[in-house]
Specification:
Radius of gyration of chain A: 13 Å
Helix content of chain B: under 10%
Order of helices and strands of chain B: EEEEEEEEEEE
Structural class of chain A: mainly beta
Number of helices of chain B: 0
Largest sheet of chain B: 6 strands, mixed
Number of helices of chain A: 0
Shape of chain A: globular
Oligomer: heterodimer
Number of strands of chain B: 11
Order of helices and strands of chain A: EEEEEEEEEEE
Helix content of chain A: under 10%
Number of strands of chain A: 11
Strand content of chain B: over 45%
Largest sheet of chain A: 7 strands, mixed
Shape of chain B: globular
Radius of gyration of chain B: 13 Å
Distance between the termini of chain A: 31 Å
Largest interface: A-B, 28 and 25 residues
Structural class of chain B: mainly beta
Strand content of chain A: over 45%
Chain lengths: 113, 113
């Protein structure tokens, strides 16, 4: 158990819909990261939040957005869903200082039909 | 643009022998490298890391070697155990953007009795 909690574990939704994935970081970790793992793209960094502020952006689509709340939990919002958005979405957390272990949650499986 | 490459999608090794996993990177700005292990339906689990100021880091059965001039790193697992059967991901980061990991495609390791 990494201490990073993600919900829901599985989600099936239709194209065009919107979903929200939730993440609770490890206790004490101020930094939260979102990653997407798809069959054709592998594990890709989407976005990072640190203590409520966006810190870094990766290959995140404009249809996707995220936020980190005062209690440090984070949500990833995916809208206007397409079939190609079907993937495993991971949340990770760490202390922000370089070299500290980045812990991953178990992921949220999203299937768009 | 795949900046981290794991060219061997799979590796089969006998229990008790050495497993050697390879990883190449193209971006010379990367200064921190990590290995993660992943079981099906679980998130990646941190194994071992190495800073670019070192050429070797050891932790129990796991040793990571870094050859900066060749932009190559390898993970040695000695001795291999059945529980080591998993997908292993190489990842790279810059310490000034900690957490923004670039992952390789992964290598499936199967340890046979």
């Amino acid at each position: 158990d990494s201490g990073v909690t993600q919900t829901p574990k599985h989600l099936i939704t239709a194209t065009g819909q919107r979903v929200t994935l939730r993440c609770s970081p490890r206790s004490g970790d101020l930094s939260v990261y979102w990653y997407q793992q798809s069959l054709d793209q592998g594990l890709q960094f989407l976005i990072q939040y640190y203590n409520g502020e966006e810190r870094a952006k990766g290959n995140i689509l404009e249809r996707f957005s995220a936020q980190q709340f005062p209690d440090l939990h984070s949500e990833l919002n995916l809208s206007s869903l397409e079939l190609g958005d079907s993937a495993l979405y991971f949340c990770a957390s760490s202390v922000v200082a370089a070299g500290n272990t980045i812990y991953f949650g178990e992921g949220s499986w999203l299937t768009v039909v | 643009d795949q900046q981290v490459k794991q060219n061997s999608p799979s590796l089969s090794v006998q229990e008790g022998r050495i497993s050697i996993l390879n990883c190449d990177y193209t971006n010379s700005m990367f200064d921190y490298f990590l290995w993660y292990k992943k079981y099906p339906a679980e998130g990646p689990t941190f194994l071992i890391s190495i800073s670019s100021i070192k050429d070797k880091n050891e932790d129990g059965r796991f040793t990571v070697f870094l050859n900066k001039s060749a932009k190559h790193l390898s993970l040695h697992i000695v001795p291999s155990q059945p529980g080591d059967s998993a997908v292993y991901f190489c990842a790279a980061s810059r310490t000034d953007s900690w957490g923004k990991l670039q992952f390789g495609a992964g290598t499936q390791v199967v340890v046979t009795p």
